[in-house]
Amino acid sequence: MYFPHSYRTLNGRPGGDNGLPVEYEYNTMNEIELYDLSVDISETKNVAMQNPEVVEEIKILANKMRSELGDALYEINGKGNRTCGMVKD
Fold first, then answer.
1. pTM for the complete prediction?
2. What CA–CA distance (Å, rounded) separates 73 from 9?
3. Which sequence spans correspond to the domains of the chain?
4. Under a CB-based contact definition with an 8 Å cutoff, are residues 11 and 23 in contact?
């Protein structure tokens, strides 16, 4: 399952040439997408609308992890995070 987000992509184009990078394109996914990888490995058929109970279950799990680990996209600071530190001998 994919949650709505923006991302950069080459959209199938080859990468750079002679060590020079190419321009990325930016895409935005506006809706939740769910794929049944057992029958659709190429992720061509979004089955989120046909499986609302699966979508809801994954959303609940994701929200639990967001509260624990945080999520910059949702500006959530995780309660399980701590400041960086250093181990001393």
1. 0.71
2. 18
3. 5-12+22-77
4. no
Amino acid at 73: L
**Tens-digit pLDDT profile for residues 28-72:** 999 999 999 999 999 999 999 999 999 999 999 999 999 999 998
Reduce the DSSP state of residue 55 to 3 states and report it: helix
Tokens representing 86 are 């250093």
Q: Tell me the C-alpha to C-alpha distance, in Å, between residue 85 and each of 78, 81, 82, 88.
A: 17, 12, 9, 10
Counting beta carbons within 10 angstroms of the beta carbon of residue 54, is it exposed (0 to 12), middle (13 to 18) or buried (19 or more)? middle
Output 17 or 42, whichever has higher pLDDT. 42
